[in-house]
Design goal:
The protein is α+β, with helices and mostly antiparallel strands. It contains 25 helices and 23 strands. Strands 2, 3, 6, 7, 12, 18 and 19 form a 7-stranded mixed sheet that branches. A hairpin with a 5-residue loop joins β2 and β3. The longest helix has 37 residues. The radius of gyration is 36 Å and the shape is elongated. The chain starts with a helix and ends in a 19-residue tail after the last helix.
């Protein structure tokens, strides 16, 4: 009986244990069914959302160096302040942001501010869609930006700034009673986080190039600033500040318009790109390849694991043809010489407020220096947050021929009358066409009898002069006579041979210049008349398109007598007598070309306007015997691993046959310019190397003359050509002092034989 009782007890236990196992199996199977069948899609999506992501590491921008590798645009390490939202509790996010922003504000640290809603002095919101480095933007561009921003932020297209403000206050959970200035600080950062995709593993950059004092304060308060990171990143750096600034250019924030032209797979919205000069032209080479960290993140974007790091690849290095020492010498000498002119140290005093200089290798077309004064410091743009007052001053609307513009490249874009520096082209034309010879002497009458125009030396006469003497003494009447003998068409023909109606081919934007001619004069005055036509874009116009076409017909027929012209203007419906008179004058000038115009053109006046770069090309072509090279600034582009990506070889644009006899005669005259009795003898007194040169004093309307000097050296075996122009410089001989300093630097000369050091003293606008 006991055995039977024992078996029954074991059976009960067995059944109980089996029941438990069965229940567990049922639960397990049920759970599997729930997870795989019922919730399978949900958990599959979660699994897929847990993925490998890439955190970018910014690549250093490629360097721009001179011909010897001296760094003109490079990078330096700097501190940036970032925030990672994944490390901040949502309820404390705004509080953390405000604490950080108050530290930055207290220490006068500029932070990224792309929020287009600003506050006026009364705390009322208003829109401003201009970037911090912009002054003038087209209205349609601003409208397009406004529309895109509102769409991206789910704000109605017609919403006012106040309505948009209220939407963001609600969206970012900012207390309505918070001080508007404090509220905007939070909005600025939250907006940056929105634009970057709100990935919690992705740092959002708030401020760049933060000083060590501020970094220390942030580190001291790190417990109160969860999610705030301090990183080291490269920042663009121009070690010589204003040196070559207009040519190097600057960098700035990516705009909405850039999105159409840039491959945004290679950029982040917060990146900086080249905005002008070489920085913009060579953006695709200077832009490096960002590296990154491979990380695993969860479905909330939180970092789980770091899988490895891919180092960034720097951009290519741009080697220029520029010689930094010659560039420094040119800029310093322009500043010093202009100061001396203003103080009357060379004789008369003139305003002398703008200067440019170009140095060219006559055998290759390499540009060794491209100087502009005044300049600016591109470092102010390096972080993408330049001071607004500086930007407003740099980019304000101005007449750059009178009011110096630090961002304007006078060497490549400043087309002004060349004065007597044009005379060598006329001298060669006269010799080559046979209207004179190297030996023919002309008696300077002081006043040219055919036109009544005076020689600059009047009331003295310069006596009998041949072509070399005429260049040495800059005898105007000699060139009046050569112009009369040849006629304007030949002057234009030979000016074109020297490329003075063309661009030089340099990599930068450049003006083309103008050769004085009847055709240009006609086009100029027809353009003035055309500007008087009433159109939708010119509602203040005073004539119709039909009247303009009839005026052109009258000009082409050439019968511009007072009575006949006024009668025809009245017949076509132009009744106002003052308007008739104004139109008749412009019509007369459009058609009329006189010997006086030809004579003015022959001495580099009239409508002649060329850039220093064009003059450098023309003089180089003459001095090297007739080979016109394309001028260039970039020597080669080298990849980070040392391979040459591109290399610029000398390129011949044209050839002119210049006989040795004619060239020797012209060079002899230019040598005389720098010797005793020459117009630049004062600047080159006791200069140890024979130099050829030519001064030019070009008249300007209602202001002091342009002062020009062109020169080459050594005389027997020319290597370089130097061109200098000083606006309101008074006399061309004064510009010779700049050229002398440049030759000093090129040949390594020193007045005291101890070696000279040239330091840039052009103070940047800051």
């Amino acid at each position: 009986m006991k055995v039977i009782s024992l078996n029954e007890s074991l059976k009960k236990k067995f059944y109980t244990f089996g029941a438990i196992i069965l229940v567990l199996l049922v639960v397990l199977v049920s759970r599997l069914i729930y997870l795989q069948l019922i919730k399978g899609d949900y958990y599959r999506e979660i699994s897929m959302r847990q993925a490998i992501r890439r955190i970018p590491i910014e690549a250093p921008r490629g360097e721009i160096v001179d011909r010897y590798g001296v760094k003109l645009a490079t990078n330096r390490p700097s501190f940036s302040v970032d925030i990672i939202k994944g490390e901040v509790v949502d309820s404390h996010l705004n509080e953390t942001i405000l604490k950080l922003m108050n530290i930055l504000t207290k220490n006068n640290v500029k932070y990224k501010d792309d929020l287009p809603i600003y506050l006026d002095e009364n705390g009322n919101p208003y829109f401003n869609f201009k970037n911090s480095d912009e002054v003038s933007v087209k209205e349609e561009t601003l409208k397009a930006r406004e529309k895109a921003w509102k769409k991206a932020n789910n704000i109605h297209e017609n919403a006012t700034a106040k309505e948009a403000w209220d939407i963001l206050i609600k969206k970012f959970k900012i207390p309505k009673d918070m001080d508007p200035i404090e509220a905007r600080k939070i909005m600025v950062v939250r907006q940056l986080m929105e634009e970057q995709g709100y990935n919690q593993y992705q740092p959002v950059e708030i401020a760049v190039d933060v000083d060590q004092k501020t970094i220390a304060e942030i580190e001291e308060n790190h417990l109160e600033l969860p999610g705030i990171m301090i990183n080291v990143k490269p920042v663009r750096y121009y070690p010589y500040e204003t040196l070559l600034s207009q040519t190097l250019g600057y960098i700035g924030r990516i705009t909405q318009e850039d999105l159409k032209n840039l491959d945004m797979s290679k950029y982040k919205l917060t990146d900086l790109v080249g905005r002008s000069g070489l920085e913009a032209l060579y953006e695709k080479y200077l832009r490096g390849k960002d590296g990154g960290q491979q990380v695993v993140v969860d479905n909330y974007g939180r970092l789980i694991k770091n899988l490895g790091t891919e180092p960034p690849v720097p951009g290519d290095t741009i080697f220029l043809t520029i010689d930094k020492n010659i560039q420094e010498a040119a800029e310093q000498s322009l500043i010093t010489t202009m100061q001396n002119i203003r103080e009357g140290k060379y004789g008369e005093s003139f305003p002398a407020n703008i200067g440019a200089a170009v140095v060219v290798d006559v055998h290759t077309g390499k540009v060794l220096a491209l100087a502009n004064i005044p300049g600016y410091d591109p470092n102010i743009f390096a972080t993408g947050n330049p001071p607004k007052d500086v930007v407003n001053e740099l980019f304000k609307s101005r007449d750059a021929t009178v009011d110096p513009s630090p961002i304007f490249n006078y060497a490549t874009q400043g087309a002004v009358p060349p004065g007597s520096t044009f005379k060598m082209a006329v001298a060669f034309a006269a010799l080559d066409t046979g209207v004179t010879t190297v030996d023919e002497k002309y008696l300077d009458p002081g006043i040219y009898p055919y036109t009544g125009q005076r020689n600059w030396a009047w009331p003295r006469t310069q006596g009998w002069v041949n072509v070399s003497d005429a260049i040495k003494y800059s005898t105007n009447t000699y060139f009046f006579e050569m112009g009369r003998r040849m006629g304007i068409d030949k002057i234009v023909e030979y000016a074109k041979k020297f490329g003075l109606d063309q661009k030089t081919g340099i990599e930068l934007y450049e003006a083309k210049g103008v050769i004085a001619s009847p055709q240009y004069k006609r086009e100029y005055y027809l353009g003035l008349i055309k500007s008087m036509v009433k159109t939708d874009t010119n509602p203040d116009g005073v004539i119709t398109e039909e009247q303009y076409q009839k005026i052109v017909e009258i000009i082409d027929k050439g019968n511009l007598s007072d009575y006949n012209t006024f009668l025809q203007l009245e017949k076509m419906g132009i009744k106002d007598t003052k308007l008739q008179r104004k139109l008749w004058e412009m019509m007369y000038y459009a058609k009329h070309w006189s010997l006086t115009n030809t004579c003015s053109a022959a001495i580099g006046q009239g409508d002649n306007q060329f850039t220093p770069l064009q003059i450098a090309s023309y003089v180089s072509t003459l001095i090297n015997g007739g080979i016109r090279y394309r001028l260039h600034l970039v020597d080669k582009i080298v990849s980070p691993d040392g391979k040459i990506v591109e290399e610029t070889k000398p390129e011949v644009l044209d050839r002119i046959h210049i006989s040795k006899e004619y060239l020797d005669a012209i060079k002899l005259g230019m040598k005389g310019v720098t010797e005793r009795g020459g117009t630049a003898s004062g600047a080159f007194h006791n200069f140890p190397i024979p130099v050829g040169g030519k001064t030019g004093t070009a008249e300007a309307v209602r202001r002091a003359n342009y002062a020009w000097f062109v020169g080459f050296a050594p005389y027997d075996d020319p290597q370089i050509v130097v061109v200098v122009v000083i606006y309101q410089g008074g006399h061309g001989s004064y510009a010779g002092y700049v050229a002398r300093d440049i030759f000093d630097a090129y040949f390594g000369l020193s007045k005291n034989n101890t070696g000279e050091t040239f330091n840039v003293i052009n103070l940047p606008i800051r």
